[in-house]
Amino acid sequence: MADATVYNNLIGGEWVPSKSGKTFTSYNPANTSDIIGIFQDSNGDDIDAAVAAAKAAYARWRLVPAPKRAEILFRAAQLLTERKEQYAREMTREMGKVLEETRGDVQEAIDMAYFMAGEGRRMYGQTTPSEMPNKFQMSVRQPLGVCGIITPWNFPMAIPSWKLLPALIVGNTAVIKPAEDTPLSTFNFVQTLMDAGLPPGVVNIVTGYGPTAGEPLVRHPDVPVISFTGSVETGRHVATVGAQYLKHVALEMGGKNPIIVMEDANLELALNGILWGAFGTTGQRCTATSRVIAHRNVAEELTNRLAERAIQVQVGDGLESGMQMGPVINQQQLETINGYVQVGQQEGARLVTGGQRLREGSHAQGYFFAPTIFADVQRTMRIAQEEIFGPVVSIIPVDSFAEAIDVANDVPYGLSASIYTQDVNRAFVAMRDLYTGIVYINAPTIGAEVHLPFGGTKATGNGHRESGTATLDVFSEWKSIYIDYSGSLQRAQIDNAE
Ligand code: UN1
Predict the structure, then answer these.
(1) Ligand 1 centre and the CA of 41: distance in Å?
(2) pTM metric for this prediction
């Protein structure tokens, strides 16, 4: 412990300890004797300092031409590419997912940096004709000021990039509070932005816990935008607090994402999709496949083949070659997953494989859980309704395509949904009738790319989107501008009326 690295908060370009002097320790979930680092356990005093720094930096940053801001993002993308392997390795140590996937996480931040750099030379508004002679009008995006950004641990570089980069390109500054399980990847990301030329104070990092560091950020009167990814419970709280201050609050929350497998599907393709969607990232994606809605004609075969494949999934330390699934993030998550396995059994679902923590050999050092499959699941069971956020998938048999769509939509969430079918008509009906923010045809529920909107309906969000150009709406406000060059008073709706 003596030689563990201490990471300070980043405020106004300076690395400073928390004002209270408190810290917390971050551990490797694959091996809890491996300490990642010691981080600041911050509170409202640290948030106040960070917001003040971000506010001061905003005065200059908002006036930097967007294409110049874009050059910094572009340079950051290049630097991230150079550092990809190192950052991926640190991320695997920090949160467990296998190296191939943490490389993907860094890559997503690179993609976002290039995409938002491009936006710096577009950021299109509208020009429209006026109803009056000699009058011009247009709309432009304007920044809002200091953005409060609260990010989760499952995509510890990609999700900060989804939020910070659009905020910055529009001309905002930011205070980010990363998840307490994964602050290091945020440090790596922000360090890269600074190395690329981001001025001090434009992005500030305050580490700590939700109630002590997140809450004062959400409540801060000088923070007009809050972008949050996490649980529904916390998201609802953030929205409630934000409403008191009339803040812009963008929420990304849970999912209960289904793959529908129709009787005409290519089963091998569907199997591969389910395995990747359900057990990739140890099931810890908002977009993870947690339900398989299978036509009764193929449900039994699908279940058996899936079980055969699930027991072959290599579970272990994500830095070891050949591993396909890492640990879950922490003890608490392990207990949540265990609890759901018990609930599923009590409800009468059939546990086909998995269902227990792995403790033998090297697994003893970390939070490993076996890939788990429940069959004969009823649509109303809790394991078919509630987000588990672990490597657990429920197979729900149905008798028809119409029932499949109905079951798919019959959950509180609406993030992502998928269908495997060879029938083009069914594919189009599914595209229309699946009430989610993302739909996949013959592909699993995970794998969104940065240039389309990301987000969901119902309890998944509150109507905003990340990624794509849609995300710019979270971090900017439209300003409509009217220029009258007639030299006389022209009264809209009056002087041009018949
Ligand atoms: C998440 O599920 O928490 O679409 C984010 C995907 C990734 C991002 C997932 N690009 O699966």
Answers:
(1) 28
(2) 0.98
